[in-house]
Automatic annotation (TrEMBL):
Keyword annotations of the record: Repeat, Transferase
Keyword Secreted tagged: no
GO molecular function: transferase activity
InterPro entries to which the protein is assigned, alphabetical: Hexapep, Hexapep_transf_CS, Trans_hexapeptide_repeat, Trimer_LpxA-like_sf
Origin species: Alkalibacter rhizosphaerae
Taxonomy, superkingdom: Bacteria
A Pfam match: Hexapep
Name this protein carries in UniProt: CatB-related O-acetyltransferase
Length: 155
């Protein structure tokens, strides 16, 4: 089963945990022996249905630092940065930088206008050949976006 979807060009460091199972915190017990499905005790005292897995979405060009924990069901937006050791329990917007335990918004990587233009460009969907033609401007966001837009218009 696959409960996590990861976009293109992501950087995910070691010792990260993404997704994972949840427990029914509004039931009398959180133990998996009280709902259907497999568990380590190989015992089910109830046939109640509980789905412990929510889909987790990691956008394109996301950087997740070493030892980060991403809760099941969370969405990490395109271009986001998750700091080392962060515990992410809420969805993260595009091009936001989050860190801490629990993780909180530190700042946005770019202005809202630039973020909107990057998202519209969807540069991560370009072919390797096309990306290689615009890669000389990877450190100049404005020029990169101009060149990507020129490239898209010629297609």
């Amino acid at each position: 089963m696959n409960f996590t979807k990861v976009g293109n060009y992501c950087s995910i460091a070691d010792r990260c945990i993404i997704g994972g199972g949840a427990h029914p915190i509004d039931w009398i017990s959180t133990s998996p022996i009280f709902h259907e499905g497999r568990n380590i005790l190989k015992t089910n005292m109830s046939d109640k249905n509980y789905d412990p897995y929510d889909d987790t979405f990691i956008g394109n060009d996301v950087w997740i630092g070493a030892g980060a924990y991403i809760k099941s069901g969370v969405t990490i937006g395109d271009g986001a940065v998750i700091g080392m050791g962060a515990v992410v329990t809420k969805s993260v917007g595009a091009y936001e930088i989050w860190g801490g335990n629990p993780a909180k918004l530190i700042k946005k990587r770019f202005s809202d206008d630039v973020i909107e233009r990057i998202l519209e460009s969807q540069w991560w969907s370009l072919s390797f050949d096309d990306l290689s033609t615009v890669s000389p401007w990877v450190n100049d966001v404005e020029k990169f976006l101009v060149e990507v837009n020129k490239l898209i218009k010629t297609k």
